[in-house]
Structure to design on (93 residues):
């Protein structure tokens, strides 16, 4: 054994562990941007659920539209608007 191994010193290239900066947010602190994004997600969930139910007259579609609108509001809500927000589906048969 070498003298470094005997003394218990590790010679790895791992970066040193640093403490988090005091300017970063803890797990219980939120910025105003987080609050706005949470509010947008909440409103989008309700709007998507409404659109899904009115368009298809189905609770399953309401749940699906609500979940997807909450996760992807900037994609799902423009699609709902293009379909005619809350309008019944037209069968083109």
């Amino acid at each position: 054994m070498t003298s470094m191994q005997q003394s218990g010193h590790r010679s790895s290239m791992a970066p040193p562990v640093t403490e988090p900066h005091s300017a970063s947010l803890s797990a219980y602190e939120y910025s105003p941007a987080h609050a706005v994004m949470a509010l947008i997600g909440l409103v989008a969930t309700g709007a998507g659920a409404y659109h899904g139910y009115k368009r298809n007259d189905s609770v399953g579609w309401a749940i699906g539209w609500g979940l997807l609108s909450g996760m992807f509001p900037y994609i799902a809500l423009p699609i709902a608007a293009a379909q005619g927000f809350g309008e019944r589906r037209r069968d083109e048969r």
Notes: The chain has a mean pLDDT of 81. The CA atoms of residues 7 and 61 lie 66 Å apart.
